[in-house]
Amino acid sequence: GAVVSQHPSRVICKSGTSVKIECRSLDFQATTMFWYRQFPKQSLMLMATSNEGSKATYEQGVEKDKFLINHASLTLSTLTVTSAHPEDSSFYICSASRAAGGRTDTQYFGPGTRLTVL
Amino acid sequence: KQEVTQIPAALSVPEGENLVLNCSFTDSAIYNLQWFRQDPGKGLTSLLLIQSSQREQTSGRLNASLDKSSGRSTLYIAASQPGDSATYLCAVRPLGGGSTLGRLYFGRGTQLTVWP
């Protein structure tokens, strides 16, 4: 159990376009989902935390108007990169937690989405 | 702010060797520490999770230890195999609440290559 999927796994787009990435918990209800970004040979950096039905909490330095997060249901969160630029090219990974970020709950990670902006 | 450092950044060994990967963190106020494996272009697979009250966890050929007071953890891999080749990430969950509740702080990882 506790499987998290992401779609698409890989996307290439032109500069200036918007890209939507989906994160789904397949066999459990995820009260909290986390979005991370990973540059080559770098650590995962948390971008934002989203709780179902409420606004996402963004980390310092992450533009909320550029990275739109929607967590409309207990099994789906979406990250939309608006007006993407080449510097947004990265590996985006989501994770899902059953509890509301509770300390006792494990985060289950998705397989990631490779975004390349030309 | 919590900072997590992993040493070495890369490691290349012949099959069969016993390995030690190191992780250090700056703030000892953690709830738990977790070791992950990441294959190229893939997501994360959780290997071991150590609660702050524990000293070590074992799973098969893997053993992770935690010394919270000194801010260190080690991942020991016994009898390494080519299939162990991957990047190993260390992550800590802080004790703090509020905006830090549930978040993980990751190191950059150790890229391991085990050759036959």
Describe the fold and architecture:
The complex is a heterodimer of chains A (118) and B (116). Chain A is mainly β and 118 residues long. Chain A contains no helices and eleven strands. In chain A, the strands form two sheets. In chain A, strands 2, 4, 5, 6, 9, 10 and 11 form a seven-stranded mixed β-sheet that branches. Chain A has a four-stranded antiparallel β-sheet with strand order 1-3-8-7, with no helix packed on it. Chain B is an all-beta fold. In chain B, 0% of the residues lie in helices and 57% in strands. Chain B has no helices and eleven strands. In chain B, strand 7 (62-67) and strand 8 form a beta hairpin. The mean pLDDT of chain B is 93. Classes of the chains: A mainly beta (118), B mainly beta (116). Chain A binds chain B through residues 4, 6, 32, 34, 41-46, 49, 57, 91, 93, 95, 97, 100-103, 105-107, 109-112, 114, and chain B through 4, 9, 31-32, 36, 41-46, 49, 89, 91, 93, 99, 101-104, 106-109, 111.
Question: What keyword list fits this structure?
Answer:
heterodimer; A: 118 residues; mainly beta; 7-stranded mixed β-sheet; 4-stranded antiparallel β-sheet; B: 116 residues; 6-stranded mixed β-sheet; 5-stranded antiparallel β-sheet; globular
- Look at the helices and sheets of chain A and give the structural class: mainly beta
Percent of residues of chain A in beta strands? over 45%
Total of DSSP H or I helical runs spanning 4+ residues of chain A: 0
* Structural category of chain B: mainly beta
Question: Main β-sheet of chain B, in a few words?
Answer: 6 strands, mixed
Query: From N to C, what is the helix and strand string of chain B?
Result: EEEEEEEEEEE
Based on the structure, what is the oligomeric state of the protein chains? heterodimer
Q: Any low-confidence stretches of chain B, pLDDT <50, length ≥5?
A: none
| Residue-averaged pLDDT of chain B | 93
What is the alpha-carbon Rg of chain A in Å? 13 Å
The succession of helices and strands of chain A, N to C, reads EEEEEEEEEEE
